[in-house]
Amino acid sequence: MAPVHNFNAGPAVLPQAVLAQAQAELLDYQGRGMSILEMSHRSAEYEAINTSAENRFKTLLGLDAADQVLFMQGGASTQFALIPLNFLPAGATADYIVTGAWGLKAVEEARRIGQVHVAADTADANYRSLPDSLALTPGAAYCHLTTNETIQGVQWPTLPALGDTPLIADMSSDILSRPIDAVRYALIYAGAQKNIGPAGVTVVIVQQGFLDHADTRIPAIFRYATFAKNHSLYNTPPVFAVYLLELVLGWITDLGGLEAMSVRNTAKADLIYAAIDRSGGFYHGHAAAPARSLMNITFRLPEPALEKQFVAAAEADGMVGLAGHRSVGGIRASIYNALEPAACAELAAFMDEFARRNG
Ligand code: PMP
Questions:
Q1: Secondary structure (DSSP) of 322-351
Q2: Model pTM score
Q3: How many angstroms is it from 352 CA to the middle of ligand 1?
Q4: Is 251 a catalytic residue?
């Protein structure tokens, strides 16, 4: 079957060049007569992949040499629990800024562990916009936000002012999609399966100075410090996922790094938002314009029945994964790094034609 344009929200599209390389070296990794899947995580081959993946992150994000890049398992959902376990001691408060479904999950999990304060929550606005103001706790242990809400398609274009509170960001759906000011984040985490690789590995970037405050009484396997001390090789890592991630980071680097990703992703998103905006109200974007995501574009059609038709007709034209999240319905076009600009141009043209025929 011919390749499709893959608008899935995650697991999501991977660069064709990366998949082709993985296929080419699957049976015989670098002349070793076996697959990387079959090698020890203590082998020189795997250690080289692990180190290269760490270094590529540091270079792409412009990290400090002392920052730690960790490869963990359990998805971003596990991070929702590990963060307060490590960084929310008894008597302290953590602030959470909730701009969508994932931020809500994060705060619900933290509540089971310690004292939390919701500094802003845009649920009343149906998670369409970003908060106008934040009620921050002076001296909070940390402040958590979600840079891009994957389900609602709401993204912070720039960070809000947070004072001295250490900032923790869930970047699962926009990591490495644009440059960031890494020094502003005490901790960043992201499941890999959207922008940077396959499911199975979760990346955590943590400043050493923040890590020094972590609780040391929790089980070793739950401590970030355990992973940092062992270069993520405390126990068996998800070797194949890290291998693919390292190839994806190479692909991003070869395309020009995060500046180039940002130009590419902005141009892609513009194509689709323009189709929404010129439809005369046939397509109705979920996110308010200043909060529009460059990664997940969410919109409604006049009728749910038309949305079903839209998804089916797009699929017949080779564009898959466009149904909105089951909790909100509508359409969601996820247009992560690896999605080619041509896919967005094709979707925009399809949208014009669908609106013309059904509007
Ligand atoms: N945070 C965000 C922003 C997400 O998009 C997702 C997954 N869609 C998660 C957290 C949960 O990730 P995981 O399934 O890896 O636990």
A1: -BPPTTT-SEEEE--TTS-HHHHHHHHHHH
A2: 0.98
A3: 31
A4: no
